[in-house]
Amino acid sequence: MSSEQSAPGASPRAPRPGTQKSSGAVTKKGERAAKEKPATVLPPVGEEEPKSPEEYQCSGVLETDFAELCTRWGYTDFPKVVNRPRPHPPFVPSASLSEKATLDDPRLSGSCSLNSLESKYVFFRPTIQVELEQEDSKSVKEIYIRGWKVEERILGVFSKCLPPLTQLQAINLWKVGLTDKTLTTFIELLPLCSSTLRKVSLEGNPLPEQSYHKLMALDSTIAHLSLRNNNIDDRGAQLLGQALSTLHSCNRTLVSLNLGFNHIGDEGAGYIADGLRLNRFLLWLSLAHNRIQDKGALKLAEVLRAFELTHTEVVERRRLLLEKGTQERSRSPSSSRHGDSKTDREKSQMVGISNSALVDKTDKTQTMKTPKGLGKKKEKSWELAKKEEKSGSGQSPTQGTPKKEDATKAGKGKVTIPEQKPSRAKGIKIGSREKRSILLESELVVEATEVVNPLLEPVEHRDGKVFMPGNKVLLHLNLIRNRITEVGLEGFLATVQYQMQFSKAKSASKGPVGLLWLSLAKNCFAPQCPAYAIIQELMLPRDPIKAKLREDEAMAFFP
Asked: Would you give the DSSP letter of residue 262?
């Protein structure tokens, strides 16, 4: 009975199978509803919405500005700004037993291997290497980017964070995957940077259109340009030669140009030589490791000595001379009264006669009243005044002013500063403001003389042809590892001999003297070639570095 009574008592406690299924179904539907309902995620307290990069004000610290701008542009992984590594001193291994014992420790060797592996991977990560001035994070002097592709957005970041760098001097891009489009963007970025930026290096960035000449535009401020290893051929050299100079334009800021390790041949060397005909600002040129043969070498050598002007250059020279003559006549005071010069002279003579007659009458009346001593003094003063009038009336209106130099003397680089000495007593020093004004005036005069067109330089007429003295401004020419033979050497030998004679004749006056360093080694001729030996002998005393070394050696032997 107890079992029968317990069964009905226990049955109501057990849950029904139907109700269990229904409750399970209800719970599943609730879970689905909770899953399907979108969860409202509230932003954490204190976190702001992402800001646009245009609103960011750069602080001048490249590391901070670049990271912040990359984050705002949406970059999650971007290059880090690091200091450029310096070469380490040579490692000298130690042979002590204690060091060997520590290296044999397995735990230490395992940690060293992990660190070395990590350091190797960190080395290949993209970085922006910088050189600082006096270890100041705001004084970035040079920027080096190597081995990773610079995209359009990265250039947009640079356009924001590079202008605040007031001491930036150089940008070096090596194998950064530039295209013609990104190069145009990079060139548009350069004017925004500081005025101290003078050096740009684009190496290992071959472009299909070879538009490197855009870096040498007339409004460019680049003074040192390196374009090594860019597969520049004769077509690219033609564009670069035209950027150096044409008949009506010239690049006046570029001082050094490195075109080494390219594919420039004879035709391209001829285009570069054409650019050097009327360029008087480039001092340093390297065409090492190219494909230049004798024809191109002769073209380069010809430009560096007296060369014949073409018909178009002669016509342009005549036009410039006529234009200069009209400008000088318009500046002189006599040109405005050229037509009425005779009448002016007659009037001045008549006025002078009448004045002298009146003065004579007054003198006669005064001598009757004045004592003898005073009369003698007045006679002497009248004679001196009369002498001054005669000396003044005998001169032309342009006399008394400094004579202008002829067109033949304008190109010699002479600086003529007007003699306007400030009148002051002895012992009184010039103030800082006066010094600044005098310096500014001299700088303006120097700039005015430097801008003179090379076609206005003194020329020589021979057999009905016009010869220009040639380019004496280029000081350094590097033609190592080309394909020049003894035929090309003869051209450079004639150039060096001509420049030596020119420098001896011009030793008294200051001015350009020609090549100081010429490198023709490792071409297609023997080192014992007579022409090469003579060139080396003639260039040895002109090389300033070797001359300095000889002086140091002489001082060491004879202190």
From this structure: S
Q: What is the pLDDT of residues 287-330, one digit of tens each?
A: 999 999 999 999 999 999 999 999 999 999 999 999 988 988 88
Q: At what angle do helices 486-505 and 530-539 cross, to 10 degrees?
A: 30
Mapped onto helix, strand or coil, the DSSP state of residue 209 is coil
Report the alpha-carbon angle 330-334-340, nearest 5. 115
392: Cα within 13 Å, side-chain hemisphere: 8
Instruction: Give kind and range of the element (H or E) at residue 467.
Output: strand 465-468
**pLDDT, tens digit, 9 for 90 and up, residues 404-430:** 344 444 444 433 333 444 433 333 344
Question: E strands along 209-348, which residues?
Answer: 224-226, 256-258, 284-286, 307-308
- Residue 499 in contact with residue 472, Cβ under 8 Å? yes
In the numeric block, which tokens belong to residue 545? 């570095």
What distances in angstroms separate CA 439 from CA 431, 436, 444, one per listed residue?
A: 12, 5, 9
Residue located via tokens 């060369």: 307
Return the DSSP state at 245. B
Q: Which of 492, 496, 473, 474 is nearest to 484 (CA)?
A: 492
Q: Which residue matches tokens 């670049």?
A: 66
Query: What stretch of H or E contains 236?
Result: helix 234-244
Q: Give a three-class secondary structure readout of 434-457.
A: HHHHHHHHHHHHHHHHHCCCHHHC
For every residue of 468-490, DSSP letters joined together read E-------EEE--SS---HHHHH
Give, in order, the Cα–Cα distances in Å from 457 to each of 199, 247, 278. 31, 14, 11
**Torsion 324-329-332-336 (CA) sign:** negative
Please tell me the distance from the alpha carbon of residue 264 to that of residue 482, in angstroms, as a whole number: 10
**Coil vs helix vs strand at 511:** coil
Please give the mean pLDDT across all residues of the chain: 75
> 138 is written with which tokens?
């705001």
* Confidence (pTM): 0.68
Residue with tokens 């995620």: 41
List of E strands, 274-404: 284-286, 307-308
Distance CA 153, CA 70 (A): 9
Q: How far apart are CA 108 and CA 74, in angstroms?
A: 41
Q: How far apart are CA 529 and CA 260, in angstroms?
A: 25
